[in-house]
What we know:
Strand content: 25-35%
CATH architecture of the largest domain: 2-Layer Sandwich
Low-confidence stretches: 155-161
Largest sheet: 7 strands, antiparallel
CATH superfamily of the largest domain: START domain
Structural class: alpha+beta
CATH topology of the largest domain: Alpha-D-Glucose-1,6-Bisphosphate, Chain A, domain 4
Helix content: 40-55%
Number of helices: 5
Radius of gyration: 27 Å
Shape: elongated
Number of domains: 2
Order of helices and strands: EHHEEEEEEHHH
Amino acid sequence: MRIEGSYPFAAPRDVLWPMLLDPVTLANVMPGCEELETVGENQFHGILKIKVGPVQGKFQGEVTLADIESPHSYNIIVDGKGAPGFVKGTGSLRLEEDGDMTMLHYSGDAQVGGRLASVGQRLLDTSANAIIRQSLEGLGQQVQARMMAEASGGLGMAEAPPPTPPSQMQFAAGVAKNLAEEYLSPENRDSLIKGVLGVVGVLLLLQLLSNWWANKIARKVAAVLEKGGK
Length: 230
């Protein structure tokens, strides 16, 4: 499974970079993340509860950051397993600064096995993209909150409640949204329209056949009644 994309942050790179190394921040924005704690230098242990189609359960695994080049990039190594199966993957993250904006570029490859692999490639891809998208959206909100707190002299930072990761329902809604966007993408729009027109054509044909058959039966019944009346 290949994953890649980019996401813009309305913040300087020096603000975003330390948050990408903070397990507390990451745990609070990742859907289904129940735990992400430091177990060694640039090593973390995590527990993630996910639902992909009919398959759901918890994964436990290790996340290692390697080849760190502050504040530009690092590589990620993931090794997790649980009742739904296993996930092993490697990826990279790179920050590109453009004035007050920072573009985050990410890419990676993952191997999935067990019951999780039975849901199909398309649903796996869509679910993975939903996790990444919702995590980045949550991180963007945290970045803005931190910048506002710093601009106000740090007032209210200690009292601010920690963010809540997206619920399973919100995650499922994100997966459905991504699927809809995929099906309605320009490259799929023509095939979708043709499919809809095909279904409509079949329904019209069935309606015509039904009317023809009903009229034929009605004529036969009328003929029998006419003969009986004579």
